[in-house]
Specification:
The protein is mainly α. 47% of the residues lie in helices and 0% in strands. Helix 2 runs parallel beside helix 5.
């Protein structure tokens, strides 16, 4: 059953053909979406994302290269939390792709034996994360 915020309850599968994480993000209030996007930018920087990762992130995200978040990324303008509300889900998809690229590279180079990076522990702390209030 969907939660009161429009997302999925714990353990519930999304049957709507949409990525469950994207579905969760769409169910968040705008203020929380902005906070999540801001935090994702920080995680990308901590994972040492580079400008060279931009094109691959755009391709992985499935976004058109002409969408504002994609253009911003190719110019390394990462203040995406200030985008209009309709662009926040696009920024989210793009930043998730960018983080996946940078994090994979970082894990392969520096975190093989384990680490304490906050973004590597997200799945272990279901109640953790920033609060929009």
């Amino acid at each position: 059953m969907a939660s009161s915020r429009g997302g999925l309850d714990d353990g519930e599968a999304c049957t709507c053909g949409v990525n469950p994480v994207a579905y969760w993000f769409a169910g968040c209030p705008e203020a929380e979406q902005r906070l999540v996007v801001r935090e994702l930018v920080l995680f990308c920087m901590q994972a040492r994302a580079t400008e060279e990762d931009a094109q691959e992130a755009i391709a992985r995200s499935g976004l058109r290269p002409t969408y504002t978040p994609a253009v911003m990324l190719t110019r390394w303008r990462l203040h995406m939390s200030a985008l209009p509300p309709y662009d926040l889900p696009r920024a989210f998809r793009l930043l998730i792709a960018l983080l996946a690229i940078a994090d994979t590279r970082r894990r392969e180079r520096y975190c093989v034996g384990g680490c304490g990076h906050e973004w590597h522990q997200l799945a272990r702390s279901p109640g953790a994360g920033p609060s929009a209030t």
